[in-house]
Amino acid sequence: MLSHAVEIIAMCAQQPDGLLSDLWRPFQEPMPPRIETEALMSAGVHLPIDTARYRAFFATTKGWPTDDSPVWPFGGSPAGGPAATGMTVISNACVSGAQAVIEAVDALLDDDCDLAAVNAGDFITDFVREGFASLQASATDKAKPFDRTRDGLTLGTADATIDMRRATQGSGFPRIIAYGCSNDANHISGPSRDGSGLALAIERALVGIDRSEIRAICAHGTATVYNDAMEARAFHTVFGGNPPPVFGIKGAIGHTLGAAGLIEVIISALVATEGVIPPTVGFERGEDDFPLDVVHGEPRKIKPGYVLTTNSGFGGMNTAIVVGPGRLGG
After folding, report:
1. Rounded-to-integer distance, Cα 323 and Cα 7, Å
2. For the packed helices 225-238 and 196-205, what is the interaxial angle rounded to 10 degrees?
3. CA pair distance 321, 310, nearest whole angstrom
4. Phi and psi (nearest 5°) for 10?
5. Domain with 191 in it: what CATH number?
6. Does the pLDDT of residue 77 top 70, yes or no?
7. Which end of the chain offers a freer environment for a tag, N or C, measured as fewer CB atoms within 10 Å?
8. Are 133 and 126 in contact (CB under 8 A)?
9. What's 258's DSSP letter?
10. What was the pLDDT predicted at 81?
11. How many domains would you assign to the chain?
């Protein structure tokens, strides 16, 4: 558990087709810069801020075209705005978004900044599609996370942003409670089959936390044969054969690569606060080995509380982040 929690004071996510439009908090506007600025003001951050105490973290697996670079609310883009006052780029395969959150949390707790913005995104190009196809990792029809008939992932384009600061007493914002990382050093593109790498990351995140306090797991859930089996095994290892309810969003929005981990932190914050788990699109029937309680068909109500979100990526990297609830309406 972190020595001091970090709170998420603004968050937003979007896709070109609008699948994530209902996730904007707290405004329903199409432009991230305006959203973020207004959200910061609603959180009590006085603008203009001291840019010397503001840091930006950008997560991507391969970068953005120059003419489509994400724009930050205080002027410029990663190529020419906040870079002068603290831009960090994280490119760590499919854990990039989650890793950027972790780097930003560390910067806040180390007092390197007072406000940290994390942006994550990737465009899905023909090169990316063909790359996954060459690995035989693409679904023949649709992604089916944790389903026994799953045969691969589907890809999605998305962008997400959150703003964080050190938690203040009495505030009602969702919080990053803890995190853990590991690298299983198994294969350039395949996870360790026994789930030991992910299990280690989760164990590190849960130090000082009673496992019974984890209300749900937002899984990486790519719907590839090996990833989902590895995750199930890791969850059973950590939770003594009885993991909490599991859900995944990639069957609904696709695997958004560098944005995936950050979007799943946002989803986890909403689940932790609102006490409603979204159904896992594509799931019908699970495996007999290391069975999971996968939420599907319809949303499930739970008691608000901690949500664990996990990610794994090429090169063997694993992340686990525990998100705590805020208060509805503030």
Report:
1. 9
2. 40
3. 7
4. -160, 145
5. 3.40.47.10
6. no
7. C
8. no
9. G
10. 38
11. 1
Percent of the chain with pLDDT over 90: 49
Q: What is the pLDDT of residue 66?
A: 41
Determine how β-strand 6-14 pairs with β-strand 158-166. Answer: antiparallel
For the chain, give the number of residues: 330
Range 299-318 average pLDDT: 94
- The parent domain of residue 248 ranges over 1-330
**What are the tokens at 155?**
């890809």
Q: Which of 91, 90, 63, 94 is nearest to 222 (CA)?
A: 94
Could you tell me the maximum CA-CA distance found in the chain, to the nearest angstrom?
56
**Residue 244 CB burial class (10 angstroms; 0-12, 13-18, ≥19):** buried
Bridge partner list, 122: 158
**Stated pTM of the model:** 0.86
Q: Is 225 exposed, middle or buried (0-12, 13-18, 19+ CB in 10 A)?
A: middle
Q: Is residue 281 scored above 70 in pLDDT?
A: yes
End-to-end Cα distance, the chain: 24
* Omega within 30 of 0 (cis) for the link into 304: no
Element (H, E) at 181: strand 175-183
Say if CB 164 and CB 6 are below 8 A apart.
yes
- For residue 6, CA distances in Å to 156, 224, 313 come to 29, 33, 25
The separation between CA 119 and the C-alpha centre of its own chain, rounded to angstroms, equals 11
